[in-house]
Every structure is written in structure tokens, then in C-alpha cells.
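Co-fold these.
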Amino acid sequence: MRPYYQQINPTFGEWTWNQNPSDQLLSFQLAYLHYLNSHWINEIIEFRQGFTRVSIVWKSPERQDQFIRETEGLELIPVLLTSKVWQVPVCYDSIFGADLTHLAEEKKISSSKLIELHTTPLYRIHFFGFLPGFFYLNGLDPLLHTPRKSMPSASVQSGSVALGGSQTGIYPKESPGGWHILGRTPLSLFDRQKQPPVWAKPGERIQFVPIDAQQYQQWNPNQPQFIEQ
Amino acid sequence: MTQELGKVQLLRCPPGTSFQDEGRKSGANFGIPPAGAMDLKSYHWANHLLQNPPQSVSLEFSQPGLSITFDQQTFISLAGGQAQVLVNDQSIDNPSLICIAPGDRLKIGSFQKGHYFYLCIAGGFITESYLNSGSDFDSVTESANKKTGEILFYKPRPKILDQKAKVKWNSTWFESPILEVHPGPDWSLLTQGQQMELKSRTYQLSKNRSRMGIQLEELFSNKLPDLPTNPVFPGTVQLTPSGKIIVLMRDAGVTGGYPRILQLTEDSINQLAQKKTGDSISFQLI
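Predicted complex below.
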């Protein structure tokens, strides 16, 4: 899984993988990100990670040229992905999961079956994007893949757990959104007063754990729990 | 401490008025956009005239202008668009550098040219810094916008500036319709015919615009595939399945799922920021 480097302009380029997002691809990507951090950080203005790319903004065209010369044929050993699994409580009650019943009907399954399908997988965190504290997860059951809403909702509440396309995720703050809302987590996803402002890292996993409305009210939003698995 | 600070009060300000500087160069790994002045060129110019440090916080605002009052003597600088500028109802001929007396009321009327204005003050506005930037952004700074009635603080600087040396702000640089662009990461997904079409057509700015992005009026029909979500930057041009062309700006999320067909140069981003709804643009590949 060696990426190829695509130069986009004199100071910008991307490591490109043409495979579908997977744990294996991520374990290579993290190795290449680590390499950037330890060897090239002084030459770089910024780099960003997506499912199949690592984008790099260089301080000068010369730096990018040097990088292209010196990394030709570079082959790294993938990193071992961590066994850390964050247990994310989700209340799937209809007061929080406005679209759950409708979605279950559309899929011709019961609401409890839908919740089971959503809470069974361990989802891998690939990177953060969209909004501060929003993590992109891989691993949604294909049965739950659903086109986004044709008319996005004007306001989705902070903590809403939702799915759209082949993705599932949590809105870290109130925002307009086109995903189908299944429930809500009491956990805070982004806190600017903390360093770092998020509690999870790319490579770690998420499991959604169903809780009831009473548990939701009493949950401490600032103490996310994890297990090793 | 507060009595040592200078104060200004926003008597009236349009929606979207915000503190901006050069923006954040870190935080994308947590999903935090860079933010920063939409038109960095004008922002830098205004700070330069005041001999402020380059990262000094300015007030960014748009139509229909604003009015503001000052509590003590200072210098301010205005750059970006062009509009009627009044101090105590007296028209100011060259607003690039204005000497302000205590109690003065500054009023910027509706714009004749441009879309964003930058008001810088000698010494710079004071605000909480997050990841080395004072740029307002929802959930990252205390508030996302400034509101009418709000009081803003700055650090007064006793240095007197030579007003004779002032240069008049020139807006011709953003009036050209031609935006210089590089091919984007997904440029090669377009057919040669589509590439030619993209380069030869002109487009108009739609009214769907914000600090996150600017949507163009004309549709560009395409059958590009769904792509995995990957990094985007200010100036990335995205093409949606329904044919909308969206140019991402300073507050856009750091990743996106639509094909990234073009990338504006830094100068083109500033130029586009100052275009008005209905203005024509075209893309010139470099």
C-alpha cells in the first residue's frame, strides 16, 4: 500500500491511495503521517488527512521538489492500530432520534433491529473534519447505507448521532445537516478549554452503547469511557 | 487593567461582522478550519498602514456598512471595498488612515465597490487567542460574530503616525474577472471536453455566499463518481453531482466529499472574496 505523490501546484501536493478506505489503508496512512511529522515538519505549513489522501502544503516550491526527490521509492511499515475502544452512550428515544422510526420502516426492519445494527460494529476513527470535533468513522453496516436527505434539516442538535450515505457520526455542535438522526449522546465532543480539545484519536475505535432517557440526563458529559479490545 | 484599554462601541453592525486576523495554521487535525480575513491582502494593507504587527486583529464587515464610536484619541485604517466614510457626519476623502478624536462617530455607508471591509486600529483589537489566532469561529472562540451595541477593546498605542505619508487604497486589483487557478486534485476525472468548457465559460456569483464558501450561479453538468471524503482548503473548487460549483472560503470545513476540480491561488481567493453577487468570473489555469 505505497501511495503515489500527486503534485497539485508548486507548493501543494497529495499522497494518494486508490484503494477503498479500510483499517489496512489507515494503518499505512498513519505510518506516512508519522514520517511527515518526524522528517519534514519544518518544511511544511500544514498537512491534512482524508480517507484516501494526505494533503501537504509546503513552505516553498524548493521544499516540495526536495521531498519528491528524496521520497521516491519510500516504503514504510504500517503502524499497528490501537486496541482502544471508546464506549459512546446513545439514547435512541424518539425525542432525540427523530428519523429512527421512519428509517426502520424504510428498511423494513424493527426499530430495535436498527439500533442493534448500529450498535454492533466497532467503528474506526479515520480523521476529523466537517466541524471541530467531528470524527469520520468507517464500518457502518451496508444495510444501513442510506442516501442523505434531499432537504437538509436547518438545525441538528449538538450530540446528535446520525447516518448518511455509507457514514455514521456525531454532530459536535448544532448545525444544519442532511443526515438521518438516530439518537443523541450526552458526551461533549469538542471542548476548546481542553488541550487537546477532543478525547479520541485517529486509529481508535468507537462503539455506540444504547442508554435510556434517564441515564442520558444523569450522564457526565466530560468523562468518556474506553475499553481495550 | 481595563481602564488602560481603549474602547469602541458598535452602534450598528451588519450580520457576520467578526474579528479576523491571518487565521489558524494548526487545528485542522481536530476539524478546526483556518478562518482568517476573507481578503487577506486588504487586511494586511490596513495593518501595514498603522504599522501594526502583521497578525493584529481587525474588524471584518460587509454590507450595509457600520457605525462605531471611540472613547479616546487613536488612529484607524480602512481597506477592502469602497464606500462613503463619515466621521461625525463629515465625509472623509481618503479613509486609508484616519485620526480619531475622543467621542468621534465613524460611519461607513453602503458599498460602491467590494464585499468586505477591514477596520484596523493602532495597537490592534484585543481578544482571546486560540491556536495563535483571534479569528472568530463558532465553538472555537467565545462568539462567532459581533453584535450591535457590543463594546470592543484595544491596546492604545501612543505613537503618532504621519498622515501626510498615507497612500490611498486602490481597489482595481480585485476588479478583473479572471481568477488564476491550478488544477485541483480531481481535475483528471473531468473529460477533456469538460476541462475546456470549465476554462472557457464565465460564471456569476450567486447570492449563496458566506465565509464558508461561494456558490456560482451556472450549473456544470457532470457524471463524476462519489468520492471518499478528503482534505479541502480555502480556494478549493468543488463540483456537486447536481452540477453546482462551490468555491470554498476561509471558514469551510477541512475535509469534503465532492470532487475537487480546481484550486484558486492565494491572490485569487482575496480577489473572489471582494466580488459581489452577480459579478462575472472566469478561471484561468496557470
